[in-house]
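Internal QA ticket QA-208
Title: Verify multi-chain structure generation after dependency bump
Assignee: T.L.

Test input:
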Amino acid sequence: MNLSPVTRHPSLLYFPGCALKDQAKNYERATLSALATLGYEVKELPRWNCCGTVYSLAQDDLMRHVGPVRNLIRAQELGETRVLTLCAMCYNTLSRSALFVQNPENLRRINAFMDDEEDYQGGVRVVHLAQLLLEEIGEEKLSQAVVKPLSGLRFGAYYGCTLLRPKEVAVDHPDRPEVLERIIAALGAEAVAFPERTECCGAYLTVTRPDIVRERVSEILLSAGRAGAQALLTSCPLCKFNLEERRPLGAPKIPVFYLGEALAWALGIEEIPEELRKSLAGVMR
Amino acid sequence: MDEVQVKVKPEMVTVYIMGQAYQVPAGLTILKALEYAGFRLVRGVGCRGGFCGACATVYRLPGDYRLYADLACQTTVKDGMYLALLPSTPAERRPYDLKKVRPAGETLLALYPELGRCVACNTCTKSCPQKLEVMDAVQAALRGDVAKVAELTFDCLSCGLCTMRCPAEIPHYHVWQLARRLYGAYLAPKAEHLHRRVQEIAEGKFAAELDRLMRLSQEELRELYKAREIEPE
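Actual output:
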């Protein structure tokens, strides 16, 4: 494959987040190989810390923003103005903290507390993989890079909450998003629409109220199943966990993959899993 | 020639020990200053060489908002220093069977779930007398990188200062000890040559030679020692 770098800034700063280094290693591996193939020189943010995991809704809880803002400072120290996230949760927390410190009073107090770091100036944008693929690389270049089109595969794009809410950080229209569907189409697959694609999976209630999560997951899977999805694509490790591990008996067993995995399949970097290849018999072989 | 008696009056500084002012000679360590002031230390003191971590202490300086943390045996007094005695840091070490736990993040989090309360405030790092990157170690624990935790905390003295200061109330030094044990038991490359040598000893390979040495007289041992092979310099 002969691909020239698709960007004028082939170096790309990357914030992994804890799950990408532990439970979701496959998401990181697949995506980073795919981005390298697309011409990016991805470099991991040095000395990053946890994004904060859940954005704090308490107005006076400044301490919860120290972690996310510290990551933005690490990017600023390198003279970077953007940082890539693959995890939807990290994207949400970091973006919202970046928004939080756009308020000068919040910024002043956070900087005063962090007397061990240089002051944050507020100039780092958090970018999610879906945004990078569509806004910077674009559907045309993306489909040109595809060597193994995923044609015949029917994916349900599962957004969940963190890519879309609140609307200030949404990667697309919060009610009628289409970014994931457009990426799926660019990879040669079919994106099936299903009404529950933007519903919450139950998120952290998985710890204290798994019964609620099972209910949510059941609705999502039934909805996706009715629409004919063979697999779901997500960019959130927690959504994936819930959709797989909290699936109640009777709900359709639809496999869940990461967006970056589908990307790596289409770019010919990783093998399409057996369970999908089987359902594609005659199409993909 | 007459000896000239010169009485050098030591330069004195004022320190405040638990609110009370004391004049102590400049250049003393905090530990010695406490003793100079008359305190007899039975806790919060140990090796006096900066290795054991028992004399962890906190202090403030006039006109400075920071609460400094350091080892009392390694820090010299400054004029106007506010000192306190800090006998120990209470923290619970959770029980585990090293043979039954996995060298993974889940082990650290299962035994010390408070790790998840870290907000990356970095107070732990700022309080470390060993200048370790304590917060980075907490973060490595959260992402399941046991080897990194072991590496970052290798020089930890278990003084407990980070544990005392942590708003997430993490008992750091117990977590670090667990991580290093996991590393040693499961992740560190095995020293095969050591294993082989231990086996040789167990099989009695050196027993006869040792017996022979044990039966020698002191004189014979001395001769043997003189005649030993030495690597050329």
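Spot checks passed. Chain A touches chain B at residues 18, 21-22, 47-50, 52, 63-64, 66-67, 70, 113-114, 116-117 (CB under 8 Å).
Status: verified.
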